[in-house]
Write a structure and sequence with these properties.
The structure is a homodimer of 261-residue chains.
Chain A lengths: L1 E3 L6 H8 L3 H7 L1 E5 L1 H9 L4 E6 L1 H6 L1 H4 L4 E4 L2 H8 L7 E6 L13 E5 L5 H13 L4 E4 L9 H7 L7 E4 L2 H10 L4 E3 L7 E2 L9 E5 L8 H6 L2 E4 L11 H12 L1 H5 L2
Parallel strand pairs in A: 1-4, 3-4, 6-7, 6-11, 7-8, 9-11, 9-12, 10-12
Antiparallel strand pairs in A: 2-5, 3-5
Helix pairs in contact in A: 1-6, 7-8, 7-11
């Protein structure tokens, strides 16, 4: 089924545009993918692509992908620009179902990243992408972290949402779940008892928490962690960008990366 | 000397505003610092602060700093907003001399980061900040890299420009200078001969090159490197953000960080 749309006032177009708001994403449990790379990754990884939206040229050139989506909309370049807010969009978008849930897997295994009130969407997306590259099993974010499916986070994740598990949740409950099964939870707040991240030997299952850019981790959550880690620094910078810190820690800690390379 | 300014049409204000452009920064060899933290860091590290610009309230509350700058301008909050383009500025700015040069130190020692056409100002600033934290001696950028003293780069550097050496230059000449003294230059392009960064033992003096976000390193420059490094990945992300990669590599390679912690 292919429908042609030419006006930005069409109800479909209005709904796509509204996917830029957290409220509408939550209501609809859908979000927008921008560009062929993400659409192809979604389909390849079995994600549910609900609608495909493209200019006539783009749709004609990718019939293999078009044939895999039931609802296809042929639109003007202006409509694509209107819904993506991108300066020079590729001319293709898709509406996909949000894969993140509010539950918790019945069994927790592997390395997990938890984000406690990380505000910048670029940082959040970059950390999900890095967690994917570091072989982490999943990422859990609390309510005060930038929404995982906002356009900016989606741009920075570069498709990693299709490779690992994403959850929204109460980090204290997650922390308790790890600890109940004997898996350590590492905080990242400098304090006198903090441990050098290079000296820590992690088991295969553990969690690492990164805090807010300016204020660090929540005090109550910090008090519940098993250890706090620091990255030894020689320079005079007072701190690192949170996404850079997370990258160094995730690649340092994930045992599976260290053992057989 | 304290002068009061109330109009955004004043010539001083126009010049401060123009510091947002690369052309005027190059002409004047000056750039803008926004906020007390950066102004204090500049003075503390012996940087040349040419002019201090603040609202009456802010200047009154920091007389210790005010007394250390010769030219002080008392301005309206509107003028500060106009020149900083910040939504909620602190009410204090300063004009400082650009510390980066086009030369080369007579002796190259320590770890150096080279940026080959890195486009995003946030990535460039974050890498300078990370190089500082990793104890690197300096950063060299080529002409196609985002200007080191643009407002966005300055915001991301968070004062690290006062802690290490910054140079603009022809990376091929720098690479040759390292190699003449027997110091290795590491590229970061995946190719069949690339080496696992965890297995590399660097001498105290070396250089690491990071390339463009989309296109990687320049082919000619790449051909001249001694080794290319890769970060072993377990996940399915195809790549890492360039600032995250640089962070992992810099903390991995800088020997001084590894030996005595």
């Amino acid at each position: 089924m292919k429908e042609q749309l030419k006006s930005v006032h069409n109800q479909h177009v209005k709904n796509w545009k509204k996917l830029a708001t957290k409220k509408f994403r939550r209501q609809s449990q859908r979000y927008l993918l921008d560009g062929w790379h993400l659409v192809a990754e979604a389909l390849q990884n079995g994600a549910k692509v609900v609608q495909l939206i493209g200019t006539p040229d783009e749709l004609a050139q990718h019939s293999d992908i078009v044939s895999r989506v039931e609802e296809v909309y042929e639109v003007t370049p202006e409509i694509i620009k209107h819904i993506t807010e991108t300066v020079s969009p590729q001319g293709i978008c898709a509406v996909a179902e949000i894969p993140a849930t509010y539950g918790m897997p019945s069994q927790l295994t592997g390395a997990w990243l938890m984000l406690d009130s990380v505000q910048d969407p670029g940082n959040v997306g970059t950390m999900v992408r890095t967690a994917d590259a570091a072989g982490f099993a999943g990422v859990v974010v609390n309510e005060k972290t930038a929404d995982l499916f906002s356009p900016k986070v989606v741009r920075s994740m570069q498709g990693s949402q299709f490779h690992l598990h994403l959850y929204n949740g109460d980090l204290k409950k997650w922390l308790a779940a790890f600890q109940r099964m004997g898996a350590p939870v590492y905080g990242t707040e400098l304090n006198p008892a903090a441990q050098n991240c290079r000296k820590v030997k992690t088991p295969a299952t553990f969690a690492l928490i990164m805090g807010n850019e300016g204020n660090g981790m929540d005090r109550d959550l910090l008090a519940l962690t098993d250890h706090n880690l620091y990255i030894p620094m020689r320079g005079r910078a007072e701190s690192l960008n949170v996404a850079v810190s997370a990258g160094i820690l995730m690649f340092q800690l994930n045992q599976s990366l260290q053992q057989d390379d």
